[in-house]
Amino acid sequence: MSETQAYLPSAAWQEQAHVKGMAAYQALVAESEADYQGYWARLAREFVTWQTPFTQVLNESNAPFFKWFEDGRLNVSYNCLDRNVERGLGDKVAIIFEADDGAVTKVTYSELLAKTAQLANVLKSRGVKKGDRVVIYMSMSVEGVAAMQACARIGATHSVVFGGFSAQSLRDRVQDAGAVMVITADEQLRGGKALPLKSIVDEALADGSCPTLKDVIVYQRTGGKIGWVEGRDHWLHELLAGQSTVCEPEWVEAEHPLFLLYTSGSTGKPKGVQHSSGGYLLHAALTTKWTFDLKDNDVFWCTADIGWVTGHSYIAYGPLALGGTEIVFEGVPTYPDAGRFWKMIEKHKVSIFYTAPTAIRSLIKAAETSEAVHPARYDLSSLRLLGSVGEPINPAAWEWYHKHVGGGRCPIVDTFWQTETGGHMITPLPGATPLIPGSCTLPFPGITTAIVDETGNDVPNGQGGILVVKKPWPSMIRTIWNDPDRFKKSYYPSELKGYYLAGDGAIRDADTGYFTITGRIDDVLNVSGHRMGTMEIESALVSCTELVAEAAVVGRPDDTTGEAICAFVVLKRPRPTGDEAKVIAKQLRDHVAKEIGPIAKPKDIRFGDNLPKTRSGKIMRRLLRSVAKGEAVTQDTSTLENPAILEQLGQAY
Ligand code: WTA
């Protein structure tokens, strides 16, 4: 990898960015190395307003349950809202909301504060207290963001569940979190269609399966017909009527859990990743400033959903903590056509745009098919910075994004991070880092990522290995809700010398030391930037007990979605072929959608009389991965009990 391939930050970028040039980056890294705790303490004082200042920085006495800024007290909603109003930003637009149909609503900081305070008063009026868990199952809306902020305001711990998850997934999360309330909408509008939310909540809560749950608060979005459980269900607008627009923030300890967010691991059910208040807010704000270079007159747009961590850190918290103006978008990138993103950038003069490689790849395809939705047809001159997140971005997509969206002038920050890390871990800083397409470049200052072997020893650059973080950092996961042992086992396995195990493989370039993520090293798939465990999908398939005897799920590369889900299924009846196979494949996909959500539907379903197993009965997953890819099987199949089935499994439905 030579320097000439790199895109260097322009002189203008190096002069005006918050982190000015590589020397400034290196100075920050040096500061963090010289005095790790002093560095984070300095930033925590600069970025967070504390009601009670902290005197302790990092408490490692109960590692790996680390505590940051332990004796400090703060309120996250105060930091995102009141503080900006007090600074004179009351009339500044906080959120530009664009609805699915294109209608625009602008909300100022004063208005968002009033709305949040009223909503917080609603929660209090229903008896929600500090420490209670509230599940938010909402579409993209100002109300969704305000609901998160309202929880933060009273010290309730929110758990946002993506609106595409099924009733069963929602029930699992409400139960595991022990939630007292669900905040939802009657329906959500996406791509011109009204999709149910409240009826899924009803199904999730039916038969009294969630005994901790007391109230369901419903935001009226469409006015569509919904069911109603007297006493349990309440209209948001009715509860809001007459509530005061003032609500004193609840000052919480820095370690107080701001939220749980369920995500997939390699085994078992999704785990509730628990985040703190102080350390989390610090990193959300800090990375928004340094990675995105957010300035007062920027219009920032992160296209993620609030149901994912990206929507937490870079919609609900980071940009608001800095007093920024951001877009909240209800719809989908392809409605009314695949020019929607470009049209919105033009219309709102978006200057910073953050999206996922899967969206870029599908919009490339669309632009190549129809000139009318090519970014060249829109005025994108307001853009100054682009970002990517969720999965590796392939160099071809990077180059297209750079040239056709960024006009060749906008740096691209390829940000590597995870639900568990709270914010960016490895990323370019736009005024400092020379960019190489396909590499997330260098660690964020203060983040000690490294590549090691199975015993925790450093591997030399140029040689791949396991991605770890050597030292605890402020926005790290605190524990898995209800399962501290699983937290330790998943992230701090004893053989890794106390380093945090990210679950990804990575390699550093021999010359530049730049990181490239090579993909998950566990049984987690990344489909369109969404994380899913192969085991979860397998359990969903075998729960279709009338049909399925056995199932194995692997990922295979896909041009648009990054990875695609491929399921190998043995039925309880003879192996189907032709039309019958197609009908059963559809039945199985629908079943998975019902168990987990449409995002977990397998793209390929392959039927066999059996699965390839060793003589000791272990499913040969490596071999299945080759079959899924359509590769010739080069692995040793001598231990394979029934080699003939390989041919059957070649046919996908
Ligand atoms: C992957 C999303 C390569 C990675 C913020 C990680 C990436 C998982 C990148 C976390 C990137 C995320 N380059 N891979 N820039 N960003 N990943 O928890 O495998 O939904 O472990 O968090 O996505 O997904 P999660």
What does this molecule look like?
With 653 residues, this protein is α/β, with parallel strands linked by helices. It has a domain at 528-649: GMP Synthetase, Chain A, domain 3 (2-Layer Sandwich). Helices cover 32% and strands 21% of the residues. It has 19 helices and 30 strands. Helix 4 (76-89) packs antiparallel against helix 5 (109-125) and helix 5 crosses helix 6 (142-154). It is globular and about 75 Å long. The chain binds 5'-O-[(S)-ethoxy(hydroxy)phosphoryl]adenosine. This is Acetyl-coenzyme A synthetase. Residues 25-80 form the Acetyl-coenzyme A synthetase N-terminal domain. Residues 83-473 form the AMP-dependent synthetase/ligase domain.
How much strand?
15-25%
- The H-level CATH homologous superfamily of the domain at 528-649, spelled out, is ANL, C-terminal domain
Structural class: alpha/beta
Strand runs, count: 30
CATH class category of the domain at 528-649: Alpha Beta
The helical percent reads 25-40%
Largest sheet composition: 7 strands, mixed
Strand order of the largest sheet: 5-4-17-16-18-19-20
Instruction: Point out poorly predicted stretches.
Output: none
Shape call: globular
Distance between the termini: 41 Å
The pLDDT mean sits at 96
InterPro entries: Ac_CoA_lig, ACAS_N, AMP-bd_C, AMP-bd_C_sf, AMP-binding_CS, AMP-dep_synth/lig_dom, ANL_N_sf
Keywords: Acetylation, ATP-binding, Ligase, Magnesium, Metal-binding, Nucleotide-binding
Modified residues (N6-acetyllysine): 618
GO molecular function, one term: acetate-CoA ligase activity
